[in-house]
């Protein structure tokens, strides 16, 4: 899900939780997973549909805060 879509859907109270996990394709990277109330899961992506991933956990946290999320579960 693109960042702009996530911002809009957060305002509409679509998400039940957010998780930060290791990227299964590259265990050196972290990704953000967005869970909706109806059971769907999305990976957070940039506007060009590239999955938002980073080796820096702080980068992912700052992106989530910028979108408007107030909490997330983190799995190392």
In short:
The chain has helices at residues 3-11, 57-67; strands spanning 15-23, 26-36, 41-43, 53-54, 73-74. It is of the alpha+beta class and 76 residues long.
What features would you highlight for this structure?
single chain; alpha+beta; 5 strands; 2 helices; globular; 5-stranded mixed beta sheet; 76 residues
Per-chain topology:
Elements: H1 3-11, E1 15-23, E2 26-36, E3 41-43, E4 53-54, H2 57-67, E5 73-74
Parallel strand pairs: 1-5
Antiparallel strand pairs: 1-2, 2-3, 2-4
Structure description:
The protein has helices at residues 3-11, 57-67, and strands at 15-23, 26-36, 41-43, 53-54, 73-74. By secondary structure, it is an alpha+beta fold. It has one domain (3-74). Strands 1, 2, 3, 4 and 5 form a five-stranded mixed beta sheet that branches. It is globular, with a radius of gyration of 11 Å. The model has no long low-confidence stretch (mean pLDDT 97).
Structural class: alpha+beta
The secondary-structure element order is HEEEEHE
Give the termini distance in whole angstroms: 22 Å
Query: Main beta sheet: strand number and arrangement?
Result: 5 strands, mixed
Overall spatial form: globular
Mean pLDDT: 97
The whole-angstrom Rg is 11 Å
Number of strands: 5
